[in-house]
Amino acid sequence: MAVGYLMGKVPGFIFNPMKRLKTKSLKKMKLYMSVVMGVAQDVVDKQTALYAHGKEGSKDLMSVLVRANLSENPETKLSNEEVISQLTTFFFAGHETTSSTLVWVLYELSRHPEYQTKVRDEIKATRARITERGDGELTISDLDSMQYLTALMKETLRYHPVITLVRRQANRDDCVPLDIPITLTTGEVVTSILIERGQEIQILKSTWGEDADEWRPERFVENLDLKQQTKLGVISNMMLEMQSILIELVENFEFSPPPGDIEILRVAVGFMAPILGDRVKGSKSGRIELPLTVKPL
Known about the structure:
Number of strands: 9
Order of helices and strands: HHHHHHHHEEEEHHHEEEEE
Shape: globular
Organism: Clathrus columnatus
Low-confidence stretches: none
Number of domains: 3
GO molecular function: heme binding; iron ion binding; monooxygenase activity; oxidoreductase activity, acting on paired donors, with incorporation or reduction of molecular oxygen
Oligomer: single chain
Mean pLDDT: 80
Keywords: Heme, Iron, Metal-binding, Monooxygenase, Oxidoreductase
């Protein structure tokens, strides 16, 4: 169920006093919700207008929600409030992860011009190959073959995770073998760990090597074992979307840091966001923004 809809179900005597608070955080939240709900309402209005002109749409999410909104069956009908709340939830869940990751990709490319050049050269070489074979568009195989671009995204997801802490919970008892044996204070060497159902597990920092605290995409190109072990899983579609966007951006623009001594802080605000900082005062502005110098090529 959507967050906005659930908030509306909170008893007024609890929620109404909270809405009158004048804190900065609540003001920002109200502004963000106002903007995103306005966009969602505009999308619903446009889709509803299509139905009014006899165009029933397809099986996409928007069409399904609007059909439910227009349904005369009380069991399947969704109110306008419910449709808007569902859409805002999908906006946040479906776009914030991709856009936030792209922000950090561009940030790192601006700080590492040599890697930016590698990716740009790889894009040019791939374009040349598809021209030679007579194709006009990049295929998924072409995207998969671009190792520097793929490594760029994997390393950014590793170093700048959108969700700062993800704990894995075992759903059954298991025995996990250790890549690096551990010697206990008793002198006993442990080569595996028994995991009980319901236990939370953290991934060891040593997995990424001695330079784990550095942003270095080459680790995914040089280390074959790491490359093969890093599975994309459910984020495969997000990776394809980011690849397509980054190819257009890197191919047509050059990114570099802005003039001046500007500090960018990583701050968790539900997701990992760039916040302007003040090196002298040791404070942050509170504004989510990432200034960059962008030069057309």
